[in-house]
Amino acid sequence: MLTADFDYNLPEELIAQVPPEVRGTSRMMVLNRETNTLEHKSICDIVDYLRSGDLMILNNTRVFPARILGAWEDTGGAAELLLLNCCETEHEVEGIFTSQWRCMCGSGRKSRTGHTILCAEQQLRAEVLNKDEEGHSLVCFRSAKPLMALLDQYGLTPVPPYIRRNADDPEMARLDKERYQTVYAKEVGAVAAPTAGLHFTDELFEKLEAAGVRRAFVTLHVGPGTFKPVKAERVEEHRMDAEFYEIPEETARAIRETRAAGGRIVAVGSTSVRTLETVASLNNGEIVAAQGSSTAFIYPPYTFKAIDVMLTNFHLPQSTLIMMISALAGRERVLAAYEEAVKARYRFFSYGDCMLIL
What is the CATH class of 3-63+179-357? Predict the structure, then answer.
């Protein structure tokens, strides 16, 4: 299957640069696979499409301010780091906190082993130890305060590259810190939000609960690979980056109970889908308590083992995410729905509107 088969035309002005003014007011396209129909609704209307006994699965990962600006110690030139994943847990020796992270380094020059970036008003030293085959740097952080405390004070929310931001705009930084996070975010570790969850409010959850719709949580720490373009000409040649996931026993039990009672599993976002399908594929279709690293790449043809309904945002052309929903709803049907979404001026990508696939 060709990557180009998942292309579509998207006017740049439809890429949402900011979230809706009020959380929970996004538009929602409803794609019904059984009737082959499209409806134009609002996220608050999801209550009308879910049933008593359904179970929503949400990814409770929490985005941390993983982007930090600084300057090279030797030249003073500007540099920035995006922390991807921790390679050595932070420890303290004689008042100095030390940890190692795999990072993306942005600068006017190449990062080299032994070079140091000073961040957080020179309170944080970041020494480049080496680089891997993907161009990421292993960085040793040293400071008199815990790293997360400095990131909370000086770090920036790592919004996707298609959202244009001026690092000197404090109002946008404040907005992203609040809104590029679900209301149920808990487990720190993501550098990208599970964006289908951004539409939910506590009030909407109360309405769903009153309607008999339960919810349970998984964790998948979303990495920058979620935005990684598919460069291979053929879909099958693409490889996903590994991302940590966990399904607690409480969630596994809730899924088993829902299945036994005839309810549907409603996955909120592609990360919830990937978590559930990873575990189901390893356990003969069953969901059990588990944790590990997922490199699952879902594309047509694929038989879903764990989910029945999916809520998702509108995704980039030729991305692994549009391939996933094409596996669920059919490529031609998805591309026709996207064409309709463009005509109807839906807002696209992370801060954009959403689609409910029944």
Answer: alpha beta
